[in-house]
Amino acid sequence: MKFIPLFIAFLLSPFLFAQTVVQKTIHTCDSKVHVDYYNHNQLLSKRFEEDTLYLHLGLVRNCHFASHIDLSLHADSLILAITNTSDIFAACECYLELELKITGLNDTNFTVYFNHAYYDKTLTLVTEIRELKKYPSRYIFPTPEELHISTATNQLSPDDQRIGYWHIGNEKTDILALYELNEAECSVVLWHVLFDPAGTIIEICTTVEKDNKRYSVCIDYPDYLLLDF
Fold first, then answer.
1. 188-220: per-residue pLDDT in tens?
2. How is 106-174 classified by DSSP, letter by letter?
């Protein structure tokens, strides 16, 4: 995950004059799907027409979220400072989509960042600037096409680490898993699918990272079929 120091957002304040959010639309929270099933901060689309930038974001925020947006633009970085201005704090989170219309830009040849706040192990509030990434879908799980991929090659890296698609199984279960190498060149599982002996999918699990921690999120196949890919 790409980070840049928070103080850059403040150093860039002189560059704010030309960029303006002229329209903002917050879509209704999705309360039907568990928030952990979504990519929490994602860039759904970015398009440019004349001097106007259209951004479509997917966010997980408080159920009574009301946004205020400040912009910083410098070189190849567009930073969105997204603040919750609601007077109400609900005891829940939900997935919502935010559409922004921004004027005063020349092109889209930049990376979009946002301010991310979380509490560390010492319960200290930490704020970082993180990249708003574009994912294959809104959800953390593999797409339906990936679940039935037939090109698993069970490859090993030169250091005997699993990479790519693997089929692992026995007489009771079959597992399709996708591996990649982390920064330490060690194999990590991105996701895996569990099949029964008849080849029916039982559950899908994805490894996610949140606030510098890695953990697994699983979904039963009937619930997976309800997701709108």
1. 999 999 999 888 999 999 999 876 778 999 999
2. S-S-SEEEEEEEEE-TT--EEEEEEE-B--SSSBSSPPHHHHT------EE-TTS-EEEEEEEE-SS-E
